[in-house]
Amino acid sequence: MRSGIRLLPLCLAIALACTAYAKPAANGAPRKDPTLKHPADEFVLCRGNAVPEFPGIAPIGKASERPTAPADVQADLADLSKVGISVFDGHVEIRHADQWTFADHVSYDHDHDTWQALGNVKYQDNTVRLTADRADGDRGKDITTLSTQSQRIQYQLRNTRGNGQGDHGKVEGDQESFWDATWSTCDPQDRKWEIHADQVDMDRTTNVGTAHGATVKIGNVPVLYLPWMSFSLDNERKSGLLTPSFGMSERSGFMLSVPYYFNLAPNYDATLTGRYFGDRGLMLDGQFRYITASHGQGIINATWLPDDRQVHRDRGSLDIQTVTSFTPQFYALTDIHHVSDPGYLQDFSEQPFANAIGLLSSTAGVYGRGRYWTAGLYVQDWQITDPNLTKALEPFRRTPDLWFRWNQPFGEHLELGVRSEAVRFEHDELPGGSRTDFYPYVATPFSSAAWYVRPELGYRYTRYQLEQPVAPGDSTSPSRGMPIASVDAGAFFERDANLFGHAFINTLEPRLYYLYVPYRNQDDLPVFDTQQYSFAWDQLFRTNTFAGADRQTNANQLTAAITTRLLDASDGHEWFNASIGQIRYFQPPRVLLPGDPYAALGRSDLAVNANLALDDHWTMGAEYLYDPHSGRSDLFGVRAQYHFGHGGIVSVGYRYRPDLIRQSDVSFIYPLNENWRLLGRWNYSLLDHSTLEGLAGVEWQDCCMAVRALARRYIHDTSGDKDTAIFLEIELKGLGSLGRDTGTLLERDILGYSR
After folding, report:
1. Cys staple from 148: which of 133, 208, 587, 659, with CB 3.0 to 4.6 Å?
2. Phi/psi at 606 (5° precision)
């Protein structure tokens, strides 16, 4: 018969450093041990723990309760006859606050407040679980030492995958130390990687582990030695040296990056990285991030490469992105980008067509918003990033731009609004000026569940103050004013449908949009920031074909469009939708940008969109523009994606614009089994008979480790020059990765990729 006794903490605190489990559930079944549940199932392939769960044990309290909580002791035999000594034998269990200790033999010295556990020692609390041959505890010093004779100490962190062994150990409050120790997140019988160290310390208050005299081994091969290293026990950010990365590029040669992370405060941190390029030299790369109590935040990135060996000059970049909130209604934004020279991005960016746009924009401003209004005051500057562009092609600076928008309903059938802007344009080589644009309007919407109609009437007035006229004899204060009238109307029809034995709801949604804007000659107006939209579905319902206030199209036109949908009758899931629409011009558009040819059009392109989602596996979409005047396609695009088992994805796309684009794009993730998968992307220009980007790789993943090897060939500038990059990443889960980070690249290139 087992003996049971309750000892007050002042008399007996046997399990101060040994830790415990809660009581069994009411039905007698033990609760499941909360072993790691990592986001995105990072350790989903793991099979077991270094120290398996102790059956029937669950935590019963908190560590903060140890000073006052009693200790319950159960044993086969209890000897309390000796003065100052209590002895327990046979299946001894001690429960105290959050602690649980098991041993074959336990003795407690009341005079010195020490205890000793011998034989088959098991030890658990809310954070750690371990086994040893012997444990010696000192209540006064809050220390427990652990040792073994027949085998090494085994330990397992209960809230993460961290586990390992030690020759001997010590538990002191919330800190554990093990000597001649190991640490890993791998399964105990399959150590893909492991840290071997003279000493491993784990601080459970900060969740930081440190290893002294540490050797990182992959398999049995040492790959890294550090006299001291720190690592996170819970995947949270901690100061310290991050894992180095390396790679190879045709433009820069061998690349090695060594980052150091500074966890400066809960609301700001910094990372300083040394990047060595074999063909260029050493670059310093710094990042500073912060968050303020008023919901402000910011990121500052800066790089500096002194004396690039290829171009023989200093190079660098600066990026500042901040949000500063003054009140719930007012805030400031900065988005500043600068590079040392026009060729910087093509040399150091790994993005395809890094300088294809050829420009960097920088803005800074203050903004406000209310229930019915928004406003802003900002400045904007530009920098050319394509060595082939001249300064004259740089856009105008805004110094500054003030805008205000207001839209408010008054009752159910009246809506008033204003869109306005005042901006100053400046340029180093072109004459600038100021522009004021003002558009008040009134709308009278009516609607029901089956239809809607929205008439709108406004007046647009734009005035300039120019440094010099557009043409000799023109005014330096030109202006333009015209009314803009539109009516937008639509209806919704639906019916029950049955296809392939499945119940659907089929909708039919016709829409008419009439727009009238009288013609005004605008040849005396400058072009500061205005471009014509490429025709697409959205153009069917715009009041202006130009982006920017320097041109306002004339219009006397009617858009007719219709959409149909196929919805699942049970849950509303949209299986299919298709739309078709076209503009009928009663008077052809006559307003042009300088140099654009005039075309007397009677109809716009016919625009068609369609999307199909057959099930959880198949999704498809298509867009099409047909030019009725030339009888040819102006745009054709199709895409399809198939999801198959174990995370496999195949995506196929094709896009065509006459004389501009004929591109195919194929990407895939093909799982061979639960450990291996193939990755790839091929973006090909049929017009140029050239690969724009090719990516091929393989990924192997196990419980605690992943290896990714990629080869990438891509065009990196507008001249068509190509670069080849090799990526090799070895991820040690819970510790870091060796090699070049491939995550951002794969998520961008392969639709649906995730780790």
Report:
1. 133
2. -85, 120
347, 341 Cβ separation under 8 angstroms: no
Domain presence at residue 330: no
Q: How far apart, in Å, are the Cα atoms of 200 and each of 181, 395, 466, 556?
A: 6, 59, 72, 79
Contact 115, 137 (CB under 8 A): yes
**Do the domain assignments include residue 674?**
no
d(CA 43, CA 701): 10
Place of tokens 């990443």: 729
Going by the DSSP 8-state scheme, the letter that residue 478 receives in this structure is: -
| Total-model pTM | 0.77
For residue 194, the SS3 value is: strand
Domain of 61, in residue numbers: 3-238
Q: Residue 573 falls within a domain, yes or no?
A: no
How far is Cα 546 from Cα 530, in angstroms, rounded to an integer? 7
Q: How many CA atoms lie within 13 A of 542 on its CB side?
A: 16
Identify the CATH number of the domain in which residue 68 sits. Answer: 2.60.450.10
Give pLDDT tens digits for 487-499.
999 999 999 999 8
- List CB contacts of 234: < 8 A, sequence separation 6 or more: 159, 160, 207
End-to-end CA distance of the chain: 54
**Domain for residue 40, yes or no?**
yes
- Number of domains forming the structure of the chain: 1
Q: Which amino acid is at 177?
A: S
Torsion of the alpha carbons at 173, 179, 182 and 184, rounded to the nearest 10? 20
pLDDT of residue 652: 97
Residue 622: strand pairing partners: 610, 638
What is the arithmetic mean of pLDDT over 165-192? Answer: 90
